Amino acid sequence: MFDRQYCSAAHRALGRVRSARAIRDSGDFDLDADWTVTISPTREPKNSAARASAAIAGLACIVTLVVLWVMPPSRETAAPAPADYSLPGAPAVRNFQKRWLPTQPSIRLREDFQAGFRGWVADAATGQEWSVRQGILRPGKLRLWTASLNLADYDFEFEGQIEQKAMSWAFRAADHANYYATKVVIASPGPMPRAEIARYTTRDGRAGKPVYLPLPITVRPDSVYQVKVRVKGNLFTTSINGQIVDTWSDDQFKRGGVGFFSEKGEAADIRWASVSTIEPGLFERLFASTFLLTPSLLPSR
């Protein structure tokens, strides 16, 4: 049987190629015709989900370890001794690291005077005339809270009431002759009294010239004062009834405890007192626990 258009199969194949090329070159083809297109789906690696899960789990473990490392330790009820630890490396590196690592856990002390004032130490020449009645302390000459004497940065809080003229306290007290003192003084007594805050430094037993500032809160003869003193570095901030009334700085005393006193003609009642160390923030603890320097970066001794 013969093909009327082609004399052989080879000529037929050649004719098909030339016909398709001619149609393409002439542009004579239907643009509106439906063209079937098959898209093969992109194959993702089979283990991508497993890798993502492993990465998330690893990140969660790292975050958990960091949080456990930098979380503050449990609170204590008495001031502990500085932690003793050893670090590898040159002495300069060890000393540098000890400056940045926490030296003692955070603590919180509280005194309600139900058992008297046995934890408050007196000096031979001071600390007399103290009394407690129904859990309320009436201070006399200066006594210091023994458990607070080795602290440096802390919040000192107490509640008190002025019975006569002034209410006085001390902080950063290294001993009974070296401390910072503050008073709330009734400057003008009466139905609507006017109060002032006074502060001064006592060094080697000699009191410096006090600074008096008006107290920007309303007081009455029976006012109860919620006092908070923040001691951090060389900056001291006093708040009364939730309002900041004084901020000042001094570099003389780096460490020391708290106490109460009353001078001649003064009388005050103290209902409770507390001291809590100021805990560094998350970033500060993380920085302190991970910051290292090689000996080559440290200054020569």
Outline the structure in words.
The structure is a single chain. The N and C termini lie far apart (110 Å). The protein has four helices and 16 strands. It has a domain at 108-277: Jelly Rolls (Sandwich). The strands form three sheets. Strands 2, 5, 7, 8, 9, 10, 11 and 15 form an eight-stranded antiparallel sheet that branches. It has a six-stranded antiparallel sheet with strand order 1-16-6-12-13-14, with no helix packed on it. It has helices at 9-26, 48-70, 91-100, 282-290; strands spanning 108-111, 120-122, 131-133, 136-138, 143-145, 154-164, 166-175, 178-188, 194-203, 206-207, 211-214, 224-232, 235-240, 243-249, 257-261, 267-277. The longest helix has 23 residues, at 48-70. Helix content is 20%, strand content 34%. A hairpin with a 2-residue loop joins strand 9 and strand 10. Helix 2 crosses helix 4 (282-290). It has 301 residues and is of the alpha+beta class.
